[in-house]
Write a structure and sequence with these properties.
Elements (H helix, E strand, L loop, with lengths): L1 H52 L3 H16 L13 H12 L12 H48 L13 H6 L6 H27 L3 H12 L18 H56 L26 H7 L6 H7 L1 H16 L7 H6 L7 H11 L5
Helix pairs in contact: 1-8, 4-8, 4-13, 6-7, 6-8, 7-8
């Protein structure tokens, strides 16, 4: 198990590094020419300005540096609302606790920076907990709706009686108790919900902020995913039509969007985990075949593990062991000691002991094969909450 977790971690790290390298290459190819053209245009304007007003380059650059410092403090050429009035400060703390961090507004005093450290420590932790609880309830609602639709479909086919009671002789009805929603259906629902919220929010931002619809969609993804570049920030002008209503709508859209995108990221991480497990399983199969061929050449009286009966869905997720030399001796008819027998079956004995103990205490945990097939197992933090909710939800409510 430890080796499998390490292998999964290393493979994921390698894939993330490769993904970052590919992304850097693409963005560099797309954005670098535009940056060079903008720099050339700026140098030309700077040269014309210094020549026209008889200024030195050093004096002009010194003035521009001072403006950059003023810009960090919130001073702009155009009229915008004060950064640190109550509404501006509330918008700022919203970007802090949600981990968006646009960067348009930042504390400039030592006291503000010290307070931000402690305020963000508690605020971010509480908001992440809120997102986790929201995710748990969202998955519960999705699972309940999908199971209701599944039951209605079975009643339409005549498998389930209309009174909702299940018969014991039908395999479809028996499997309904352990039915779980597919992770791909959940991902599709969250994708549609996130897209609808983004499109509605963009329809609001486009006329009010004066952005194009594509820029509004871009802002929605950057804000909802808590990336928060800060190149486009909503609610920064000094006046808006229906200002109170717009700021309330902006708050609601950002809150709903962050919750949906956060949930979608966790579901996508499950799919990525399944893909990594599939890759590791394929790599393990190739390595096992090579080891089996070597073992077969070295020991002719041992049955090849490839011909041994399967142990029943042993994968990276399960605590399984490879076919050992003891297994080969036992299946080839050779005698083995009790110590070898216990060593080769220690995992099976441990699982059996756990199941017997749970049965004796009266709370055996029901694990269906559908839950493993759907991929809702394991996870840390929000992943664990969502996986447990998807694994434990059934049609009996």
């Amino acid at each position: 198990r430890l080796n499998a977790d390490n292998a999964r971690f290393l493979l994921l790290a390698v894939l993330i590094v490769l993904y970052m390298l590919c992304g850097a290459a693409v963005f560099s190819a797309i954005e670098l020419p535009t940056e060079r053209e903008a720099k050339e245009r700026w140098e030309e304007r700077l040269e014309n300005f210094t020549r026209r007003h008889n200024l030195s380059r050093a004096e002009l650059r010194h003035f521009l540096r001072e403006y950059e410092e003023a810009s960090v403090a919130g001073i702009r050429v155009d009229d915008i609302r004060p950064r640190w009035d109550f509404t501006g400060a509330f918008y700022f703390v919203g970007t802090v606790v949600s981990t968006i961090g646009f960067g348009m507004t930042t504390p400039a005093t030592v006291g503000g920076k010290i307070f931000l450290i402690f305020y963000g420590l508690i605020g971010c932790a509480g908001t992440i907990l809120f997102f986790n609880l929201f995710l748990e309830r969202l998955i519960t609602v999705i699972a309940y709706v999908m199971k209701s639709c599944h039951e209605r479909q079975l009643r339409r086919k005549g498998v389930l009686p209309h009174n909702g009671r299940r018969g014991s002789g039908t395999s479809e009805v028996d499997s309904l108790a352990g039915w779980k929603p597919s992770v791909y259906y959940v991902m599709l629902i969250l994708c549609v919900a996130s897209l609808i919220i983004s499109c509605c929010a963009s329809a609001m931002y486009t006329p009010i902020e004066g952005w194009s619809y594509f820029d509004s969609l871009y802002f929605c993804f950057v804000a909802f995913s808590t990336i928060g570049f800060g190149d486009l920030v909503s609610s920064q002008n000094i006046r808006y039509e229906s200002q109170g209503l717009y700021r309330f709508g902006n708050f609601v859209f950002i809150l709903m969007g962050v919750c949906c995108i956060y949930s979608l990221f966790n579901v996508i991480s499950i799919v990525i985990k399944q893909s990594i497990n599939w890759i590791l399983k394929k790599l393990a199969c190739k390595c096992c075949h090579r080891c089996q061929r070597r073992l077969f050449r070295s020991r002719r009286n041992v049955v090849m593990p490839g011909n041994v009966r399967s142990r029943g869905n042993i994968s990276i997720e399960t605590d399984g062991v490879n076919e050992s030399d003891t297994d080969g001796r036992r299946l080839s008819g050779e005698m083995i000691s009790m110590r070898d027998f216990l060593a080769s079956n220690k995992v099976s004995l441990a699982i059996m002991q756990k199941q017997l103990s749970e049965t004796a205490n009266g709370y055996p945990r029901q694990m269906s094969s559908n839950s493993k097939q759907n991929g809702f197992s394991g996870g840390v933090g929000a992943l664990a909450i969502m996986n447990n909710r998807l694994a434990e939800t059934s049609v009996d409510r």
